[in-house]
Automatic annotation (TrEMBL):
<dbReference type="GO" id="GO:0004832">
    <property type="term" value="F:valine-tRNA ligase activity"/>
</dbReference>
<dbReference type="InterPro" id="IPR002303">
    <property type="entry name" value="Valyl-tRNA_ligase"/>
</dbReference>
<dbReference type="GO" id="GO:0005524">
    <property type="term" value="F:ATP binding"/>
</dbReference>
<feature type="short sequence motif" description="'HIGH' region">
    <location>
        <begin position="52"/>
        <end position="62"/>
    </location>
</feature>
<dbReference type="InterPro" id="IPR009080">
    <property type="entry name" value="tRNAsynth_Ia_anticodon-bd"/>
</dbReference>
<dbReference type="GO" id="GO:0005829">
    <property type="term" value="C:cytosol"/>
</dbReference>
<dbReference type="Pfam" id="PF00133">
    <property type="entry name" value="tRNA-synt_1"/>
</dbReference>
<comment type="similarity">
    <text>Belongs to the class-I aminoacyl-tRNA synthetase family. ValS type 1 subfamily.</text>
</comment>
<protein>
    <recommendedName>
        <fullName>Valine--tRNA ligase</fullName>
        <ecNumber>6.1.1.9</ecNumber>
    </recommendedName>
</protein>
<dbReference type="GO" id="GO:0002161">
    <property type="term" value="F:aminoacyl-tRNA deacylase activity"/>
</dbReference>
<feature type="binding site">
    <location>
        <position position="548"/>
    </location>
    <ligand>
        <name>ATP</name>
    </ligand>
</feature>
<comment type="subunit">
    <text>Monomer.</text>
</comment>
<dbReference type="InterPro" id="IPR001412">
    <property type="entry name" value="aa-tRNA-synth_I_CS"/>
</dbReference>
<dbReference type="Pfam" id="PF10458">
    <property type="entry name" value="Val_tRNA-synt_C"/>
</dbReference>
<keyword id="KW-0436">Ligase</keyword>
<keyword id="KW-0067">ATP-binding</keyword>
<dbReference type="InterPro" id="IPR033705">
    <property type="entry name" value="Anticodon_Ia_Val"/>
</dbReference>
Length: 897
RNA sequence: GGGCGCGUAGCUCAGCGGUAGAGCACUGCCUUCACACGGCAGGGGUCACAGGUUCAAACCCUGUCGCGCCCA
């Protein structure tokens, strides 16, 4: 009924073509609502996507982040849970505004947003969003992400915007949000405040200019000098100096504290103050204080009693010198870097330039604009982050939210405990406009609508705040805003809090911290997720961070084109070992593409043998040991995968299913059952084997589906007529009673015996084509029974002609020891006796060496007394086995003569 | 300066108290009727170094060296 196959026959093609399959299956899943099956009675499982920027395109980091989320969501969907992956995009205020402004500048009209006006500009941004904003969500589909697209969200949607406004108003009314004049990181290119997290500190070669500031009123230093030397990396800021600070403990300056200097160029008198910020060990020990343009100086200024409103602001929004107390008119309007040259030249001309030295300086740059950030004194809206952080810290301390790997909680605590007031206003147009209205007299009215503000204000003219909110202010509401908050929707009741947040560790400050604060505050103290899974960065094969400028970025879409989405997903999953950075080597992807092909071919083989998918999750009844064995192996594999997923060990998950599918199922089970399916074999056993193979293959498809959804869904339908898609199939039964220890032991023995015989043959250069007779010595009744049962398998896999329990004929032979029995392959005339002697000698020595080590350990006094009883018991068993093996190998050596 | 982490096979990485593992690469053999994007077999590691704890250490502790990242 839901068969997505559009080809006429269900025959598995000789070649596996990911591109065709992926496009077809994704459309099928999405159009049939498979990503969000209705399961009202099931346990909810919820992930909210870290919303990608609407301007973005899929890079390899997204591919990793979303692959992991999809593995989780598909796994939980298969487990029968009510799995919801909330998806959507973020309006990305500054990034989007930049993109659209650039397009406008490059367009034929070459128009600026100021020329257009706010309303027209915003219409243009929305138009852009409708046309180009879907890039990344289309690309997520290429990856196979099974998100709930039917409820896709955007942070600027009406409902979400209403939530943002409500949060702003509530925080304001709770006095957790306020307007204040403080220093911000000002981006003179975009003319907006930016977050300190958007400031990138770079080391650049700069200078340290030492200026002489003349002491006022004829005062002299203890050493007789009439000036104080201060050094600065930013000479132009001297125009805004409001003090010179010295350390109270510095004897050189003790006598001048409280006196004044004549600030050159400006002819302003500024005080000499005592402050611990001045380090006697650094430079002259005296520092100029520019409270309006330096974060440290701002604090010094406040300690000295200067109110923020009185601090001098010497730059305008574009960082040009502004008209200001004492600043000469000739300097007004010139750019800050020009001003620097001018000031230095003028100081030199005044004979006040003491000296200049080269200095590496830490320079703040805007991570998007690339220009030097100016600490600037402005009125902005601030959230009292410290108050909101307290319960967010407690939630992690109390284990309500866990970081995986756990050590990220240290990073979280460190940042949260030192959190600064959060500046949430931005001087942009694209974003949530701040719901604050001003009266001409400066009064502020904060309300959800203009009408409400007007009602508060009475019959006066109001003007709305032109600024918008920081994008993170809105995305902090993502875990509940996407579920309909502030409406108390059934979705919200059911899917908040989320189970897991999957994100890069680099986003802990930006986003995780903010979601924790807002989630707890607005959702009755319930943090937004139980687990925060932090993965690492994807680097190139050499371990270098990918960047456009280095040209070492790998495009996930190109990798998908080349190897298929499944191979890329498997690679990223297999390499994800709890937060460690991933060095992505294309060879690895190629290897997992090969794995996909391997499974494809195994399914082809099964199909050509009349094997079809099972109709029941329960395994078929089985009598043959190999069938009973594989059933047990499937169950144990499913249990191991459950354990891996519970522990968020994506790498374990991938390697467990890889090993099982390839090294167990393909290499052994399919080979061991070939004789059972051959012509002339027992019809009952053949039928049982077909049923078990079909069942086991089905289970592999289910178990692998979270990582390789396309290949597995395709094979699921190729192998049988199904009444549902694999994406909504049931996880295998994991009943331990399905594991039969006796058959497991028998197949384990068989595998060891075949491997030993193969090894011996290869080492002795016996032609792979030659079929040899096998003589068994010292086999007990149980072993003889096993040999009889497994004769067809031994004949095929070990290339044995006939098995005899009679003594081998005299003469050269290869001898194999497995457990208590010795197996002889007569090779009179062809065997290299020396080589066989060497082989046996090597094996005997190894066994003896190990036996000696074990008996040494058992003889040591402390071991048997202090070690765990299991460890002692195991050592005894191992010793017995190794000694026995050594004895038999020595006997074999003796027989060889 | 503070914090986090990493140094295990040629490469990329698991393992984190009981005899060293995987994938890739490498070597030999194999056109065996699912698969050469394959099969079979094999070589390769004083687990950075030095001390210590322990009956037992790649794994725990201390220090040294080397390499990252974050914050100031």
């Amino acid at each position: 009924m839901t068969n997505p196959d559009t080809t006429s026959a269900n025959i598995i093609d000789k070649t596996f073509d990911p591109a065709e399959i992926e496009a077809r299956l994704y459309r099928h899943w999405e159009s049939t609502g498979a990503f969000r099956p209705a399961r009202p009675d099931a346990k909810p499982f919820t992930i909210v996507i870290p919303p990608p920027n609407v301007t973005g395109s899929l890079h390899i980091g997204h591919a990793l982040d979303n692959t992991l989320q999809d593995v989780l969501i598909r796994y939980h969907r298969l487990k029968g849970e009510d799995a919801l992956w909330v998806v959507g995009t973020d309006h990305a205020g500054i990034a989007t505004q930049m993109v659209v402004e650039r397009q406008l500048a490059e367009s034929t009209q070459a128009v600026t947003r100021q020329e257009m006006g706010r309303a027209a500009f915003l219409r243009t941004v929305w138009d852009w969003k409708e046309v180009s904003g879907g890039t990344i969500t289309r690309q997520l589909r290429r990856l196979g992400a099974s998100c709930d697209w039917s409820n896709e969200r955007f942070t600027m949607d009406a409902g979400f915007s209403a939530a943002v406004t409500k949060v702003f108003v509530r925080l304001y009314n709770e006095k957790l949000l306020y307007r204040d004049k403080r220093l911000v990181n000002w981006d003179p290119k975009f003319k907006t405040a930016i977050s300190d997290l958007e400031v990138e500190t770079r080391e650049v070669q700069g200078h340290f200019w030492h200026f002489r500031y003349p002491l006022a009123d004829g005062v002299k230093l203890a050493d007789g000098r009439d000036h104080i030397v201060v050094a600065t990396t930013r000479p132009e800021t001297m125009l805004g100096d409001m003090a010179v600070a010295v350390n109270a403990a510095d004897a050189r300056y003790a006598s001048v504290i409280g006196k004044f200097v004549e600030l050159p160029i400006t002819d302003r008198r500024i005080p000499i103050i005592a402050d611990d910020h001045a380090d006697p060990e650094l430079g002259s020990g005296a520092v100029k204080i520019t409270p309006g343009h330096d974060f440290n100086d701002f604090e010094v200024g406040k300690r000295a009693g200067i109110a923020a409103a009185d601090m001098l602001n010497i730059f305008d929004a574009e960082a040009r010198v502004a008209a200001c107390d004492g600043v000469p008119a000739r300097l007004v309007g010139i750019d800050r870097f020009e001003a620097r040259k001018t000031i230095v030249a003028e100081m030199e001309a005044l004979g006040l330039l003491d000296r200049v030295e080269d200095k590496i300086v830490q320079m703040p740059y805007g991570d998007r604009s690339g220009v030097v950030i100016e600490p600037w004194l402005t009125d902005q809206w601030y959230v009292d982050a410290a108050t909101l952080a307290a319960p967010a810290i407690a939630a992690v301390r109390e284990g309500k939210t866990k970081f995986v790997p756990a050590n990220w909680d240290k990073t979280y605590f460190n940042w949260m405990e030192n959190i600064q007031p959060w500046c949430v206003s931005r001087q942009l147009w694209w974003g949530h406009q701040i719901p604050a209205w001003y009266a001409d007299d400066g009064r502020v009215f904060v309300a959800e609508t203009e009408a409400e503000a007007q009602a508060q204000a009475g019959n006066i003219v109001l003007r709305r705040d032109e600024d918008v909110l920081d994008t993170w202010f809105s995305s902090a509401l993502w875990p509940f805003g996407t579920l309909g908050w502030p409406e108390q929707t059934p979705q919200l009741a059911r899917h908040y809090p989320g189970d897991v947040l999957v994100t890069g560790f680099d986003i802990i400050f930006f986003w995780v911290a903010r979601m924790m604060m807002q989630g707890i505050h607005f959702m009755d103290d319930v943090p937004p997720f139980a687990t925060v899974y932090c993965h690492g960065l994807v680097r190139d094969a050499k371990g270098i961070k990918m960047s456009k400028s280095r040209g070492n970025v790998v495009d996930p879409l190109i990798l998908i084109d080349k190897y298929g989405a499944d191979a890329l997903r498997f690679t990223l999953t297999a390499m994800e070992s709890q937060g460690r950075d991933i060095k992505l080597d294309e060879k690895r992807i190629e290897g997992y593409r090969n794995f996909a092909t391997k499974l494809w071919n195994a399914a082809r083989f099964a199909q050509s043998n009349g094997i079809v998918g099972s109709t029941s999750a329960m395994p078929p009844a089985a009598t043959a040991p190999v069938n009973r064995w594989i059933i047990g192996e499937v169950v144990e594999t499913a249990r191991a995968l459950d354990a891996a997923m519970t522990a968020f060990r994506f790498d374990d998950y991938a390697s467990t299913i890889y090993q099982f599918a390839w090294s167990r199922f393909c290499d052994w089970y399919l080979e061991l059952t070939k004789p059972l399916l051959a012509e002339g074999a027992d019809a009952g056993i053949a039928a049982e084997t077909r049923a078990v193979t079909g069942w086991a293959l089905d289970q592999i498809l289910v178990l692998l589906h979270p990582v390789m959804p396309f290949l597995t869904e395709e094979l699921w339908h190729k192998l049988g007529s199904r009444d549902h898609d694999l994406i909504v199939a049931a996880w295998p039964v994991t009943d331990a009673r399905l594991v039969d220890a006796d058959t497991a032991a028998e197949i384990d023995w068989l595998i060891r015996l075949v491997s030993e015989i193969r090894g011996g043959r290869a080492e002795l250069n016996v032609s792979p084509a030659a079929k040899l007779p096998l003589h068994v010595r010292d086999a007990d009744a149980a072993t003889q029974a096993r040999i009889r049962r497994q004769t067809p398998a031994l004949e095929r896999l070990a290339r044995i002609a006939a098995i005899s329990f009679e003594a081998a004929p005299a003469g050269g032979a290869a001898q194999i020891v497995v457990d208590a029995a010795t197996y002889t392959l007569p090779l009179e005339g062809v065997i290299d006796l020396a080589a066989e002697r060497a082989r046996l000698e090597k094996a005997a020595s190894a066994a003896e060496k190990e036996a000696a080590a074990l008996s040494g350990r058992l003889a040591s006094p402390g071991f048997t007394e202090k070690a765990k009883p299991e460890a002692v018991e195991k050592a005894r068993e191992d010793l017995a086995a190794r000694s026995s093996e050594a004895t038999r190998l020595r006997a074999a050596l003796a027989r060889l003569g």
